[in-house]
């Protein structure tokens, strides 16, 4: 009985603490028409302290969504346009010799911000990709012999265009794995499209004002970590990830030849963290299986390696995740 009362008290507390989510959603809706899944994914990344990779054709408001979220939170925002001639120093910064002081002075790059928009991340070569790796994983940057901590919260939101392959560099697996979510964005619906046209030809610019401070996000993250995750849900998450590695053990023999490699332990961790954040966004103090299912595709689609056979038969990682979710027993 004590447990039930605890959950009820926790639920009430989460409902109180998550009130700001509605304000953030409303603020985003003023600027972004539709794209509910994109907005939810950005909030999950923000509350889980994870980075997000957005993939979609040009013109689907990827950049605008990230910029709007950064504007709603009183924090520092940087945008880096990735190009083939970009150098690590263009992102991280460099040491510059000061003649006046007769010593090297640190000139910090655009990475020293709370929100980083890495636009068209797959256009930059491997050297630049590896420069981002340390920042994303360790939340620090090394310039010369000195190491600098990055501000908190620190969130990299990267976009990539799936159409053009010319002049692009596929992201290394190690870096793709650093992204908590890979979100695929689709075209808006017909009614939404008409609304977008009306909004843009009216010439009115919507002013976005900050409604939260960076400290509020750090506090919210502490509350998210208190969302109750039952042992049965933990087992469910572990089963889903294990099914990507050993599908034959879950009566999915037909997937064995389609999967080159499955999700790493990072997949399990991120599934649990994202499920908690999703429950928080839905203003609930506990995680249910539907929360795990809702975010499973975004967490797993970039962590499953496809074999040549899968690519030859046009099987996508999304289809594999759907089959696993349909097969693994729900608690």
UniProtKB/TrEMBL annotation:
Source organism superkingdom: Bacteria
Listed InterPro entries: ATPase_AAA-3, CbbQ/NirQ/NorQ/GpvN, ChlI/MoxR_AAA_lid, P-loop_NTPase
Membrane-crossing segments per the record: none
UniProt-listed Pfam families: AAA_3, AAA_lid_2
The ATPase AAA-3 domain, residue ranges: 51-181
Domain ChlI/MoxR AAA lid, residue spans: 259-324
Protein name: AAA family ATPase
Organism this protein belongs to: Phocaeicola intestinalis
């Amino acid at each position: 009985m004590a447990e039930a009362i605890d959950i009820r008290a926790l639920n009430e507390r989460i409902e109180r603490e998550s009130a700001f989510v509605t304000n953030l959603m409303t603020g985003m809706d003023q600027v972004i028409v539709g794209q509910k899944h994109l907005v939810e994914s950005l909030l999950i990344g923000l509350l889980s302290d994870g980075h997000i990779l957005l993939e979609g054709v040009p013109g689907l408001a990827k950049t605008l969504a990230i910029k709007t979220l950064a504007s709603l939170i009183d924090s520092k925002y940087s945008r880096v346009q990735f190009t083939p001639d970009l150098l690590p120093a263009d992102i991280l910064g460099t040491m510059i010799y000061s003649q006046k002081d007769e010593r090297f002075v640190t000139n910090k790059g655009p990475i020293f911000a709370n929100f980083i928009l890495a636009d068209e991340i797959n256009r930059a070569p491997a050297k630049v990709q590896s420069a981002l790796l340390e920042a994303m994983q360790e939340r620090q940057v090394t310039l010369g012999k000195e190491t600098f901590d990055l501000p908190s919260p620190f969130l990299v939101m990267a976009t990539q265009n799936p159409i053009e392959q010319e002049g692009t560099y596929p992201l290394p697996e190690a870096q793709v794995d650093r992204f908590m979510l890979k979100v695929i964005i689709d075209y808006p619906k017909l009614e939404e499209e008409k609304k977008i046209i009306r909004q843009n030809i009216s010439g009115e610019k919507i002013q976005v004002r900050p409604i939260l401070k960076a400290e509020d996000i750090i506090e919210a993250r502490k509350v998210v970590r208190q969302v109750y995750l039952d042992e049965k849900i933990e087992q469910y998450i572990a089963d889903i990830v294990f099914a990507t590695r050993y599908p034959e053990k879950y009566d999915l023999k037909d997937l064995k030849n389609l999967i080159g490699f499955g999700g790493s332990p990072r997949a399990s961790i991120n599934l649990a963290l994202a499920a908690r954040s999703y429950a928080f966004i839905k203003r609930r103090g506990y995680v249910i299986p539907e929360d795990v299912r809702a975010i499973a595709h975004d967490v797993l689609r970039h962590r499953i390696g496809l074999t040549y056979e899968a690519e030859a038969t046009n099987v996508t990682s999304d289809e594999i995740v759907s089959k696993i979710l349909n097969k693994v027993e729900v608690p």
